[in-house]
Write a structure and sequence with these properties.
The complex is a heterodimer of chains A (435) and B (850). Chain A has twelve helices and 22 strands. Chain A has 435 residues and is of the alpha/beta class. Chain B has 850 residues and is α+β, with helices and mostly antiparallel strands. The chains are: A alpha/beta (435), B alpha+beta (850).
Chain lengths: 435, 850
Amino acid sequence: MSTELPELGVVFWPVGTGDSSTVVVSEDVLVQVDLNDRDKADDETTPEVPVVDLLVEVLPKVDGRPFLAAFVLTHADKDHCSGFADLLEKAIIGELWATPRMWREYRDDPDAEMCEDAKAFHEEVVRRVEAVKKAAAEGNEIAAGDRVLVVGYDTDHAKHAYHELPERYLVYPGQSITKINGVDYAGRFEAFIHAPFKDDCAAARNDTSLSMQVTLTEDGGQDGKVLLFGDLAYETIMKIFTYSEEKGREHYLEWNLLLAPHHCSKKIMYVREDGRDVLKTDVLQAFERHARQEAVVVASSGVIPVSDAPGANPPHRKAADRYQDYFEFICTMEWPSKEEPSPVVLGLDTNGARIVEDSVVALSTKSAESAKAAGTRRRLSEVAAAATAAGRVASRGATLADTSTTPGTQRVQAAVKADRGSQDAPTTTVGFGCD
Amino acid sequence: MAGGAVELLEERKNFYGNTVFTISMDTSGLVRGPNGITVRPRERFKVIVPNGFPFEPPSVVAVHNRWAKTPHVQWGSSLCLYASSSVEWNPSDGIRGLISRLSTWVEHAAAGTLDPDGQPLHPPAVYTSADAGIVLVHPDLGDRVPWASDGAGSEIRTLIAWCAADTRQRRVDVLEWVDLATATERADAGDAEVFVRGHPVVAVPVVLTPDEFGFEYPADVKALSQGLSESGYDRDSLLLDLAAATVLNRKLRVKQKAENPGAAGVSWDESELEDGPLLTAVLVGTPSRRVEGETRLAHLAAWKLDGLSSMITDLFARVRDLAVADLEGEVRDLAFSWFDSAKIAWMQVMETRPEVTRRRDQGTPLSWLAGKRALVLGAGALGAPVAEMCVRAGVRELTVADRSLVTPGILVRQPYTDADIGQWKASALSERLSSIRPDVTVTPSVGNVRTTFFAPGRDLSAFDLIIDATADASVRSAIEKARREATIRPPLITMVIGHDARRGLVTTNLTSATGAGADTFRKVALLASSRAQEWTDVGDDLFPTSPRTQLFFPEPGCSAPTFVGSAAQTTALAGAMLSEALTVLSRRSSTGSTADTPVSSASAVRLGSASSLGTSRAEWPADVVQVDGSNSYEVRISAEALAEARAESRRGARTRGPEIETGGMLLGAFDDATGIVYVDKVAGPPPDSYLAEMYFQHGVEGVQERVDTELERTGRATGFVGFWHTHPAGPARPSPTDEHGMASVVGPDGTTRRALMMILGGSERRWAGWLEGAAGEHPDLYLRVVPRSAGPVVAGHPGYVGGTDLQRLPAGTYFRGGYSPRIRVAAGGRATHVPAGRSRVRWLWRWQRS
């Protein structure tokens, strides 16, 4: 087996509960989908992980500056955009993909609570929209670092500044994007936009997440497909499946890797009805229908708890269990072990798309160092090496005490035994009497 | 439930109205063994809960085919959780038990430690009708299979199963495996045998593939042929082989209808074709895991094609027969299009192949009977169930002998039917037993068993076992006599039941036993009369000291008296007795024998209030048997009697000197019917005896009391039969003095009309060996029954003793019978010690050393 990582691939960083995925389209073209730099961690228990620094380190250089071809923000939650301001400062970002959502939030409530990075993102987007409009008006080339794409519907389109952008900078669900930073990579890269839907534009922020299927195709024609749903929940996901199936666009639903929506939240397959979580297997079956051979679900989350505390944030044990019922399942902070997480790398070569074994990733990150020294570039290896370093930091101090090591069958037997009821006599005294 | 260890995902009703639950189970952290299945951290299962739940166990299927072709996974995804659900499924524990079992199953399957036995015999789903019929597989496939003993191989082999079909019973019996050429030859032969046991012969194609059933249980021809093509047997081959068999079956059918339209039966399916085949089916054989040892044996499944597909294969066969190339192609395409839509039905395969089946009675005492030739005497309450048990246990040949008719009264407890009334029991029973196993020869014998089987010179070598279930003393006697004279003595089992059917007594005599049932019954009676605790009730029941006055006459008039007892009792006793006897027989047959090895045994089995005593068993070594000097009696000296004589001889040698003779009375019985003299016990010398080196004079003191006691104690079974004395280290033959003495006993003034004279002697070494108790040693014996002469006792008569009066005690030094010191007796001395007022019966033996 090769110890080299292929050229094309996607790296899912093991950085706790939060998305940070890097799509390597070529040696020089990298697309970052969401970012979770914990440098400014406000939580004592969460270690600081300098994701931005590690990422910038492995970015290609253009005119001496680190260059990221595109940054895609699914939605403006902290665990998807933290570190953006830092990244913007340290690297040139060719193109930003943004949803109309933030304009709406600012319009509806100018004092809306928004994290610093989200604000920085929005300000940058607003700046770029103006720059693009200006360049378009003047018939000029758009300057490097000024490009922007607004992805998704908003019923109030007309009320926002971006409305006046030329049509080619506006992308709607049902369309495919093959251009990155103005360069067409058709036949190598395609992002099919599933959401946000127009009808959801006023819904909670999570429900307006950008959702897309990213297809990478290598020179021999083998492709790998990743389904990204951001923080969408059951209803919107089902809507995506129903809609695309009705339109006969099943190929846009296929997947080799599904990033578990909302960091392995149970809201993907459980719906609250009458105060109870009710399982919806139709969504699991929808996933199953479109899963390719050896498909894998990846949860970009901290270690899955043994059980779910009421009201706890994702990841949820229940969701992980359901994915495991149907598919191979990987939690970024548990793969290959909780103690030493290694990035999940979906590699694409002539054999097709597959999760690269952790041992290969480890070897490759070592060889990346020497490759770099020798002047040859293996971008995917370098990104993997950076993510490995991030994972090493992120796992530090993670409390593992609450994780289970009991084999499943023992748990099942214990559960059966508990359900049968004990035959032991009470161990405490019991008083009876007449007062 | 329980933090996600088990989760219910879905619930729905299936086609059959059963509830199907999809569950998910935590299966993480399992260690995968070398042959284990790959288990993911969580697995989903479908639990099909039948309407009869919890009294019917649910079945479980995996939702995928990943575990196909692994042990205990059938038809691709059905899990075999329970080897025997009737024992292992606990309704009270319900789904909890199922989940627990499933979890254990997964754990073991992952570790690869599931018992490799088990095979897909049944379709996984509930099937609503058994219309497709059954297939019984009789002959072994053996090395006809195309795989190596470990199951390896890639070749497909086809055969023809030569079968007999019973269309009314929807039953096909596979009689033989043949190749197509042989089958064709048979079907074409002018004198083809087209019926077997009255059923038409049919050829069924067989496909043997080294691949295991990894495919889903097929419900139509398409699925079956797809499954088979995965193993390399394509649709073309299937159609061709079916057509080839159809050609054969058409030929057979024509002959069957011509030969015997009645027996030919109607076609299996409604849609009968003119001269069409009787049945279209296919047998598929794959290597089975259920093996003892390493060899992989064929597992067989059978599918019957429906009427439509039968017609297609028939049509195809006819076209092929016409050999029209173009038409064949068209028909072939048409055949395939119909073929694919045709339904097939699963025929229940019932294995009787020795190579894959294990007898349910293996290792039990009755398995001794397998392959044996048995004779059962009596076909009544004991004999009829015993004969049936013999057939079921696998005897090769069975003869049932009885001389009576089936009457209405016996139906209360004997296994006959109303329709049998008026028939000979032996005939009715034989007929019924033959229907249990068509392969066994059951021969009835009507009439007197004594004259049929035990007449002088009758050879009994045709039997490996004789079971006397007549409970008839005359039969026992006849067997005893016949056995005495026989050169070949099959093992003998004799059984009777007590007067109220609460006890059964069964005796077993091995080939090496000289005695038969009567002999052993006698021993039981003696044992019982000795008040041996275990046997007292047997004695009271079966050997009462006074005859039972209240005999039970079931029918008016002069019907045979019998006992009161139910079918439950008699059958239970019959079974218990047969099992007990065969326990003895199978054990004794397998162990070596010495002189002390028991050759006869008796067991008492008990029911009801007697049952707390359980089963008692007694065993006896062989008697010392010798034909008496007059050549008219067989003398059987019990081991006990000889041991007593030895004890007395040793005591004499110790207290009186090794050269002093001793002796005493012989206690036993004469049986004139069988010509046997039983010596059960010996007595020592009475106190008033005189014992010396050359003389032994038996006293009289206490002698009658001793005999009376014995008679009373044994219910008059044992009494005075004669005298014994020793010739220490001398020849065992009578001196003239001995002859005279005996003659006087049986003389007209004596007390008995015949007496047995027994002299114990032998060379010094032999004598010493016996006294010292060397194994298997016994002294030389002289035995003669001395009869009373009807006329004058003259020379040549056994009672002739010459004319000399020798009743005088010679002068010399004598010991007395008791422990008194030695005394002297003067020459011609009178017996002054003999108490007056008693009959002066005296005997005198004199031994002159020559």
